[in-house]
Task: inverse folding
């Protein structure tokens, strides 16, 4: 690791390096220096991101655009956007023996949350994700590389599930008949966003694609949103993906792998708080159809992750890290219960969106 730090020119200034955070994709370390400046050092997971150069190019393009918007609007961009720390050769990453490393400036006086029951905090998450969309409204998403093809192509996720069912190499399909039936019964609505994108009924936008709660930095003192982090999955897509995934994770009353599905509900107060924060930042840029599909996007993304967990279970747990043999099917059942909760509250969620727009 010292060899990597030499590329950045602060090897002799370092006083401490230790693992940081709880992400399960990249290896992350906090680097402390004598000059009291802190850095985040990460090794990019090349099993997930096959072309790390393209990942870093996307991050450069997006962060530079946001910094430029801040400059034009007279906003202090310190901590307001993830900032790449460049090497002495002005490169955004270091490549050594097919291992790829990058450094970011540490976002000071901030923290992340794994879960929250505080509507005001979740509203700040909505503000941060909405602001991310707002800042990138004038950016051409076609400039970005597609680093994970078909990431949110829900119909293709369904096709992958059907293929896994038909092949059934591990004789697991018999164990999940009810789960398969649950998804097949809802398959006709799975193309609601991809169809709208293909027909240009909704615009292609820059999307974060991993809008979980702990990817939003929150100021320790004010409890206001600071910036969105973990930009590895930034790609062209729909703003609906970011809205839907944030609500799926943040407004659920239980963990993603909760075994007791009776504990899983949709917290409507948290949904409303997030939607208010998001719409405060995006109502002027979203099209009427995008607004109309916000609630549907929560259902859609929850269905998508249900299918991904179920597909991985049928394929003998090749993608998601598992802690026990039934982990992926437990995850799928938890998401199924959340789908049912969204369906139960669908009309009420629609009314909340209409109320927020009137305000």
Result:
């Amino acid at each position: 690791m010292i060899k990597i730090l030499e590329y950045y020119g602060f090897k002799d200034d370092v006083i401490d390096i230790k693992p940081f955070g709880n992400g399960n994709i990249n290896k992350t370390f906090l680097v402390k220096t004598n000059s009291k400046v802190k850095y985040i050092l990460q090794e990019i997971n090349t099993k997930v991101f096959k072309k790390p150069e393209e990942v870093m190019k996307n991050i450069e393009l997006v962060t530079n655009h946001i910094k430029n918007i801040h400059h034009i609007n007279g906003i202090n961009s310190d901590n307001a956007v993830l900032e790449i720390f460049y090497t002495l050769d002005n490169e955004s990453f270091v490549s050594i023996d097919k291992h790829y490393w990058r450094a970011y400036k540490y976002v000071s006086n901030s923290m992340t949350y794994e879960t929250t029951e505080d509507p005001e905090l979740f509203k700040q998450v909505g503000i941060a994700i909405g602001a991310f969309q707002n800042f990138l409204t004038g950016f051409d998403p076609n400039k970005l590389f597609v680093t994970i093809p078909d990431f949110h192509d829900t119909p293709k996720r369904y096709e992958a599930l059907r293929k896994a069912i038909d092949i059934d190499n591990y004789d697991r399909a018999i164990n999940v008949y009810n789960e398969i039936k649950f998804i097949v019964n809802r398959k006709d609505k799975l193309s609601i966003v991809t169809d709208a994108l293909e027909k240009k009924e909704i615009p292609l936008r820059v999307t974060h694609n991993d809008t979980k709660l702990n990817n939003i930095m929150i100021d320790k003192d004010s409890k206001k949103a600071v910036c969105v982090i973990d930009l590895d999955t930034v790609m062209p897509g729909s703003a609906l993906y970011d809205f839907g995934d944030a609500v799926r994770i943040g407004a659920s009353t239980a963990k993603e792998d909760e075994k007791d599905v009776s504990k899983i509900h949709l917290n409507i107060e948290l949904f409303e708080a997030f939607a208010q924060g998001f719409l405060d930042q995006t109502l002027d840029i979203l099209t009427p159809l995008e607004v109309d599909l916000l609630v549907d996007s929560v259902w859609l993304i929850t269905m998508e992750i249900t299918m991904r967990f179920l597909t991985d279970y049928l394929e003998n747990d090749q993608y998601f890290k598992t802690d026990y043999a039934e982990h992926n099917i437990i995850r799928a059942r938890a998401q199924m219960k959340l789908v049912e909760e969204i369906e139960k509250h669908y009309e009420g969620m629609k009314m909340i969106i209409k109320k927020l727009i009137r305000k």
